[in-house]
Amino acid sequence: MDPKIIEQHGLTKEEFNRIKGILGREPNLVELGMYSVLWSEHCSYKSSRIYLKNFLTKGKRILQGPGENAGIIDIGDGFAIAMKIESHNHPSAVEPFQGAATGVGGIVRDVFTMGARPIASLNSLRFGPLSDPHNRFLFDGVVAGISSYGNCLGLPTVAGEVYFDDCYTGNCLVNAMCVGLVRLSEAEVKSEIPSIIVKAKAEGVGNPVLYVGSSTGRDGIHGATFASVELDENSVEKRSNVQVGDPFTEKLLIEACLELLKTGNVVGMQDMGAAGLTSSLSEMASRAGTGAEIDIALVPQREEKMTPYEIMLSESQERMVVVMKKGTEDDAFRIFKKWGLNAVAMGRITDDGFFRVKENGKTVAEVPAKSLADDAPLYERPVSAPVVRDIEPYYKKFKSGKSCNSILLDVLSDPNIANKSWVYEQYDHMVQTNTSVLPGKADAAVLRIKYSHKKIALTTDGNGRYCYVDPYVGGLISVCEAARNLVCVGAEPLAVTDCLNFGNPEKPAVMSQFKECVRGLSDGCRHLNTPVVSGNVSFYNENNGVAIYPTPVIGMLGLIDNTPHCDMGFKSKGDLIVLLGVNKDEKSACPELDIELEKSVQKTCLEAVRSGIAKSAHDTAEGGLSVAIAECCITGGIGAKISVNEKISNMGLLFGETQSRIIISIDPNDVFALNDMAKKNNTPVSIIGKIGGSSLSIKNGKKKLVDLKMATVSEAYNGSINSVMRA
Amino acid sequence: MKAGVIVFPGSNCDWDCYHTAKTSLRAKTEFVWHEDESLNSFDVVIVPGGFSYGDYLRSGAIARFSPVMNALVDYVNKDKGLVIGICNGFQILTEAGLLPGALQKNKHLKFLCKNVRLRVENTKTPFTNKCQSGQVLEIPIAHFDGNYTADKETIEKLNKNKQVIFRYCSKTGSVSSSSNPNGSIENIAGICNEARNVLGMMPHPERVADPVLGGEDGEYIFSSMAGYLKK
Asked: What is the count of structural domains for chain A?
């Protein structure tokens, strides 16, 4: 075969020889295409797998860990949560609206494929600075894409995060997370929540293989391969690699698939995501140890004269593969007809382990299914020695020399800190009537679980800057901060889904960041006993040869079991403001983390919220103590007087990002109860102020650092992204 | 009492309305598939929000041709019970001619989901009889096409007949452009027909009919309907 064709498929000479070894012959073009997508970094995890296996993946609540379309966590009372996060970075960088929209569509299919009804969507976004019009175009398009797709599905987008930094210019990050709900037993009353968990396994020789959903077109061919190369100035030409989403069809597909599952006749189900038909069926057969035979002439096609190569590699959206019990195909035909969707039997499960593709009876590809899904080479890529970088803390970018008042206003209006209502008001965050704590009000979203007394809390969190400075500590912090977000609303952290966004793994420095970051994440998850149940790795996030900051994003699930929850808003005049943790003069751009202190602070916070003592809770994150206090004031619509006595610099005190700190507010009568809790858990605790008035003042010793009217504070915080984007 | 919730392909507030009809209206509640041809067994028909047929054409423009819509027109004309259309439901009712006017894109050309305040303009309706005149309700909106418009004569007629039921307002109940989230003419958020048996509104009362969701102002509308129907 022409070496040029092999190279165009992103395969190395060694990989090509490996394919020849497996087949005992040269692959034909269809087969080469099939291997190229499934052996791409995006699908095969060939560079990351050796590190990912160190994650904690088991726990008493974990019903399904990594390896399926989504992880599943038992939350008790007969309910379980399915969840997963995934990246759609490269498509969004060249076609922001469709790239982001189809990112949502893909992750939603991963969740309902398991038999769960999607109940919430979250995201984590990174762009270059908004001063650049192209970054504004990307930001605007990505948010509109997520909004358009999620809203149409009736899936509330309940939480997320957005950051802006030069390193993401040219390679924005769009990570989408979906959370689903499934019952572990049949419901007694009529309900929207399905009760059968299905796996993506092609079991049962002779069982029919069905194709359901949208027809197949030429869109998105080689999307997975495109995800596995760096972006450069020519990447815009890859726009035709980006799929086009149809959320209406996806909505029908959800309802039809969940209705079909009720028949009890579905053996296995998987969506056709990256690498389309090729990956879904080969992975299903590989998991079951079976083979499959299909005739692609039976595949519904939206364009004429599509070749076998195109049909096998198309990434057209809103399509699923369903394996049914033999003789029950009519169930699918009937239900999909009702919903106005395609359903055709295109093949059957075989016992010979081969994935055989025919076109009108003539074999066009024949390869061992397992070899596509599981036999991609595993790489232990060269790794350079870990590097801890010395860059300035974030607050240093705000000019010192100004008064603390004006620096605080600058920090609050920085798009990284400022109110994100411009984003979340474009998302329907209330549909399905479960959202108990709305976006912007707390560190995590809270959703009630209907038909039970339970609630769940959800958050996404990541900090690329910390990970760039110190990949290990940055990774550790990412997990701890996500968990801290959950305890702040009164939820016990249960499980993690992670999306690991890095540069080119063929570069030893990038691989080193990855290795160290994963070690930090892994340690964090073990310390907090939050297993990783699913996730995704996105490499090659570079623009013109420069890697993004290593940016692991943690999606975390927490449980509120019939106990009080709270948000971050200060509630009543006269309440005391309490700091759990200690202030330090933070000089590094990546703060240290003492895991024992972190666990103790989280434990006390969780107990304080659950017992109803804490009337509000908020962790100090980006922007430090002053920003955290300001956010509590703005959310609560009330002022505060803070008075501390610390021997640390003004900037370090106000804006330093020292970890393991949570601000709670309590009724003065509860001081002793809180003290007892803190003492028992060995948590440093101090009263740092009082709620009330219409201004925010912060004093250190006798020195007044901040004194601002709340109206001024709110204006700086609330207006800034709106005014940039409406300009 | 019996309530029917119409389901079009793409409806997505159908279950929300189902739950609310059961808990707030305390009605025996059923879904009605868009191909069904009779609604006569129901005391209340809810046309829920969502994206019927994806709203790829004009919101509600395709749904109005569903078989169930003939049944709905018949149900209204024969005054069989109450009809409430929420969000996409309101759009469908205007497309079907059961309510006057139309809903166009929001003035900022963005989808908008947030809590807004509504001033109750007429309490002598089956939908608002539990409200005080001028009462301010806090109810969320979530729409791209909520910008109510109609010709001058229609607006005059709506005002004269007191068919405007809700207007977007401030915390204190003042109606001005600063409290208008989407550009609707005269801040109109909800209207009824002349016969007072059909209400269309963009805000979602079913999203604030349970204290766990942080608000109960939607209850005023459902308890008004329940009270009216019990008489």
From this structure: 2
User: Which of A215, A211, A269, A218 has its CA nearest to residue A240?
Assistant: A218
Count of residues in chain B: 231
Could you tell me if A214 lies within 8 Å of chain B, comparing CB atoms?
Answer: no
CA distance B20 to chain A (A): 10
Q: In chain A, what residues touch B56 (CB-CB under 8 Å)?
A: 248
CATH code of the domain containing A267: 3.90.650.10
- pLDDT tops 80 at residue A222: no
A152: left (phi over 0), alpha (psi -120 to 50) or beta: alpha
Nearest to B113 among A246, A425, A434 (CB): A425
HEC-encoded secondary structure of A141-156: HHHHHHHHHHHHHCCC
**Cβ–Cβ pairs < 8 A, chains A and B:** 88
Q: What is the pLDDT of residue B145?
A: 97
**Residues of chain B found within 8 Å of residue A340, distances taken between Cβ atoms:** 9
**How many other C-beta atoms lie within 10 A of the C-beta of residue A711?**
10
Q: Is A256 domain-assigned?
A: yes
Query: Catalytic residue at A42?
Result: yes
Cβ separation B113–A192 shorter than 8 A:
no
**A317 and B CB contact within 8 Å:** no
The listed CATH number (3.40.50.300, 3.90.640.10, 1.10.3720.10, 3.40.50.880) that belongs to domain B2-229: 3.40.50.880
Give, in degrees to the nearest 5, the angle at Cα B227 between B226 and B230. Answer: 85
Residue B1 confidence class, pLDDT cut points 50, 70, 90: very high
**Closest alpha carbon to A167 in A471, A519, A544, A514:** A544
Contacts of A148 in chain B (CB under 8 A): 111
Question: Any chain B CB within 8 A of the CB of A149?
Answer: no
Closest CA to A172 of A74, A103, A254, A243: A103
A618 labelled catalytic: no
**Is A228's pLDDT higher than 80?**
no
> Cα–Cα distance between A130 and A165 in angstroms, integer?
9
pLDDT > 90 fraction of chain B, expressed in percent and rounded: 97
State the catalytic residue, choosing from B13, B87, B169, B192.
B87
Tell me if A247 and B206 make a contact (CB, 8 A cut-off): no
pLDDT band at residue A238 using 50, 70 and 90 as cut-offs: low
> Is a pLDDT exceeding 70 seen at residue A383?
yes
Å from A494 to nearest chain B CA? 23
DSSP conformation letters of A493-528: EEEEEEEEE-S-TTSHHHHHHHHHHHHHHHHHHHHT
Q: Is residue A541 part of a domain?
A: no
Q: Considering CB atoms only, which of A154, A252, A726 is closest to B13? A: A154
- Identify whether the C-beta of residue B209 lies closer than 8 Å to the C-beta of residue B23: yes
A82 contact partners, CB below 8 Å, separation of at least 6: A64, A70, A71, A72, A73, A111, A114, A115, A116, A179, A180, A181, A182
Phi then psi for residue A352, to 5 deg, are: -100, 5
Pairing type for strands A208-213 and A319-324 reads antiparallel
Question: Is B111 in contact with A436 (Cβ distance < 8 A)?
Answer: no
Tell whether ipTM is more than 0.90.
Answer: yes
For residue A211, give its domain range: 1-38+199-376
* B12 to A252: CB separation less than 8 angstroms, yes or no: no
Q: Picking from A133-137, A140-144, A536-540, A586-590, which range would have the lowest pLDDT averaged per residue?
A: A586-590
The Cα–Cα gap between A419 and A63 comes to: 37
Q: Do B213 and A427 touch (CB under 8 A)?
A: no
Which of A310, A341, A376 is at the close of a domain?
Answer: A376
Out of A351, A376, A401, pick the residue that ends a domain. Answer: A376
Residue for token pair 């899936």: A155
pLDDT at A275: 81
Nearest to A430 among B15, B56, B142 (CB): B142
